[in-house]
């Protein structure tokens, strides 16, 4: 089985104290840092750029998960690779040459991922599964933080995991972005996701310590995982969330 990973969103951090926030989240157990790159055209917002990635790359060894919500992503792959990206995720809706774009990403020796908006069906990526390391399912319409979770996301994740299993691509991870909290992460874990973007719903909570909120989200995820395993006849007693994550990874 797959390891639970939480990727705190850079977009939700305090930009006056980015380095400090990065280190707090490292202490909280962050597996990845998620960068939302928006151009104000593909989505109705404008955030971040390669310079932010480049600056933060010097501050941490944790992998950078870079989500390009931009038009013509093929023009900028090299720029974001050179800035320090470890995973580059492009939207299926942003290009008519998805296969070629994913090949380009992999040619730079970084991981490739594709994102699907809520209205985009799973079927559009069937022909590129062999070129993917991860699929990002949007649980909200992209562009702004703090939106309501789209409940049909759970079934969409289940459908995707079934497709991956059926075609022997269980190595592909499923990431979900949008309103990730203790409640939604439980449903999404059960349906087959294992990577979760931590935003304002579960990590960056007003007047809360982000190290503690991240640890709590991991702990709640591990409790949900334990319940899933118990339902399947497995027992993991008196385990910390780190123990549970390691145990699940080896299944």
Could you explain how this protein is built, in words?
With 251 residues, this protein is of the alpha/beta class. It has one domain: Alpha-Beta Barrel (TIM Barrel), CATH 3.20.20. The protein is built from 8 helices and 9 strands. The chain has a 9-stranded mixed beta sheet. α5 links the parallel β7 and β8. α1 packs parallel to α7, α2 packs parallel to α3 and α6 runs parallel beside α7. The radius of gyration is 17 Å and the shape is globular. The N and C termini lie close together (5 Å). The C terminus is likely disordered.
Helix count, DSSP H or I runs of 4 or more residues: 8
- Spans where pLDDT lies below 50 across 5 or more residues: 236-240, 247-251
Query: Got a strand count?
Result: 9
Compute the number of structural domains.
1
Q: What number is the mean pLDDT?
A: 91
- Helix percentage range: 25-40%
Largest sheet: 9 strands, mixed
Q: Per CATH, what is the topology?
A: TIM Barrel
Structural category is: alpha/beta
Query: How large is the radius of gyration?
Result: 17 Å
Q: Into which percentage range does the β-strand content fall?
A: 15-25%
**N-to-C CA distance:** 5 Å
Strand order of the largest sheet: 1-9-8-7-6-5-4-2-3
Q: Per CATH, which architecture?
A: Alpha-Beta Barrel
Net shape: globular
One letter per element, helices H and strands E, the order comes to EHEEHEHEHEEHEHEHH
CATH hierarchy, class: Alpha Beta
Task: Please give a handful of descriptors for the protein shown.
251 residues; alpha/beta; TIM Barrel; nine-stranded mixed sheet; 8 helices; 9 strands; globular; disordered C terminus; D-ribulose-phosphate 3-epimerase activity; EC 5.1.3.1; Aldolase_TIM; manganese; zinc
């Amino acid at each position: 089985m797959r390891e639970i990973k939480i990727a705190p969103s850079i977009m939700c951090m305090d930009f006056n104290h980015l380095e400090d926030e990065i280190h707090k989240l490292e202490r909280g157990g962050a597996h990845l840092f998620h960068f939302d790159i928006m151009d104000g055209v593909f989505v109705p917002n404008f955030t971040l750029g390669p310079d932010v990635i480049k600056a933060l790359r010097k501050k941490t060894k944790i992998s950078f998960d870079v989500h390009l919500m931009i038009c013509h992503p093929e023009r900028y792959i090299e720029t974001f690779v050179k800035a320090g990206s470890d995973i580059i995720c492009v939207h299926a809706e942003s290009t008519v040459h998805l296969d070629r774009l994913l090949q380009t990403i992999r040619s730079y020796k970084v991981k490739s991922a594709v994102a699907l908006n809520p209205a985009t069906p799973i079927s559009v990526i069937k022909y590129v599964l062999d070129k993917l390391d991860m699929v990002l399912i949007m649980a909200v319409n992209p562009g702004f933080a703090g939106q309501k979770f789209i409940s049909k996301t759970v079934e969409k994740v289940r459908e995707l995991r079934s497709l991956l299993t059926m075609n022997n691509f269980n190595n592909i991870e499923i990431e979900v972005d949008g309103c990730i909290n203790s409640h939604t992460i439980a449903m999404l874990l059960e349906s087959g996701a294992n990577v979760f973007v931590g935003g304002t719903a579960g990590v960056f909570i007003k007047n809360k310590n982000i190290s503690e909120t991240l640890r709590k989200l991991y702990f709640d995820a591990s409790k949900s995982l334990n319940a899933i395993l118990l339902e399947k006849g497995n027992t993991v007693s008196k385990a910390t969330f780190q123990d549970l994550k390691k145990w699940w990874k080896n299944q």
